Amino acid sequence: MCNNANPYVPFTATIEDTWFETVGDRCVKTFKVILDDAAARANWSHQPGQCAMVGLLGVGESMFCISCSPTEGDFLRFSVMRMGKVTQALHELEAGDKITVRGPYGNSFPLEEWKGKHILTIGGGIGQAPLRPIVEYVQAKLDQYAGLTMIYGARTSGDLCFKNEFAEISKNDDLTCHLTIDLAEEGWDYNVGFVPSLLMDVNPSPENTIAITCGPPIMIRFVLENLKKLNFDDAQIYTTLENRMKCGFGKCGRCNVGSLYVCKDGPVFSYATLKDIPEAFA
Amino acid sequence: MDIFKLRKDKFADFLASLGGYKLFAPQKVGESIRFAPVTDAGKVELALANTTVPPKSIFFPQTETLYRYALGNTEMHPPAEGEAGVVLGVRPCDARAQVIVDNLFSWDVDDPYYLERRKKIAVVGLACNKPCVNCFCLSVGGDPASTEGLDLLMTELDDAYLLQPLTEKGEKLSQAVAAVAEAAETGDLDEAEKLHRQAREKINRKVETDGIPQKLPGLWDDALWQNTAASCLGCGICTFLCPTCHCFDIQDEVEGIDGRRCRMWDSCMFKEYTLHASGHNPRPTRRERTRNRINHKYNYFVQKFDVIACVGCGRCISFCPVNIDIVEILRQVKEAR
Questions:
Q1: What is the Cβ-side half-sphere exposure of residue B91, based on CA atoms within 13 angstroms?
Q2: Which ipTM score applies to this complex?
């Protein structure tokens, strides 16, 4: 929920560190930021799956998922693909620069409810950004979960985000990480092919498992189909939706899918909820 | 509460008695009639049909500053609070619309800009003696003399206005009026009753709205949307002039080093409204956008707030450049199998 008396007025925050996750025209840059105001920092609390409105005065604001778990520390991370006006301006920024942040917005992954279960994340490209907080959260509280399997793919190895973190994941027996890229590359020792096919190869059991998928719409469509083939129940499957947003708290109107607002009722939805909304995967 | 009768020749005195408030009333502005600050009582237009632009513009301005800032500085300054006001001559449908929109702006997170104006600005209504040709308020829970959302209801009699306070705010206003008005008599009340009844009978456009919210989901892929959207120009007038439409955009405006972040009316009929930065658009054509407009008013809003987000004012019909008619759309929804 908004922490300010006026929900439109953001907090200011300072960029502590930035780095590029990927290269190219639509490169992804991660920003690690700290809210400037001590009280705002103390009151801020977010859960994996939630979003925040990140802005630059004079340019505008855009909604991003918070790509870190609260278990990681007293900071926020945003992984931003260079795409439009705001993201291009954000990409110009370096450590020490100021941005504005308001939020956190939306619901979150029901990780409390999922305790004792095996967590399966299936991500594609920048879609790993909302999944990363789950991966971090479950790693931090591994004794409370039955395990974690991560399936993640991108077009090329250069398009994979958070690469340096995968080595850490592979070290632990309760964690499994499967990576894939669309086409073979020299020096690539992992899977080659699309994420939905890799999912079938990994062949996860639906028993006591929650599957969360996020990525390009076409990938989500085939992942959902394949999860159904693997006998996952609708209620065992989760995804996050994104839509254009201006306010973040259910006023400006545009992010609706059917009667649900992505900013308030989402961004996290179970497939059991979404499958009856014709607009959900539009 | 005491009911007053204000003779028309005392109307200017009545407005003068409201001198302590910032006063808005219908006036001709260019080619349209809209609510504007009153500087000359003679320019107030109460005899004309309903305003072109609904009074939502008083509570939710077409463009407003959320906060100001100077480039290179991170201090943000929201505007000072507004003054107490009165908006006079509001038709019952538009007053109801504001009550419907209140649901949204106070849903979970309060919108301070809108709600502050709602608190500070009293609404003086004017019953419709002569409904417009496209009025269909009776079909959507309204009435030409509905008091919902009004602090005081005025009814135009032959040579006077009947002033009926409805709330504490209205009572306060009528006390200010007492000096220039006289106590109403039973005959005046009967006369007003009769005019209200006659107005109801003059409303020709009707649609049975029962069951429409339940029926719309099943018509998701119906040809109705394509057929309706085929003539749509995407101009957005149906949403800009709609008293319940409340969607907005937020943009930064910068001049020199002075910046402001402001919000302005937006329309679900524009493609940019839902366009993602990636170029993907979940509502890519006017078919999806028309379907969303009708579903939002007659389905989604009903699911969330248990009221249809349409008050039957008929503006979207009267001002549509290609004669798209919401009553006709609803009739087709009703008749679709």
A1: 32
A2: 0.92
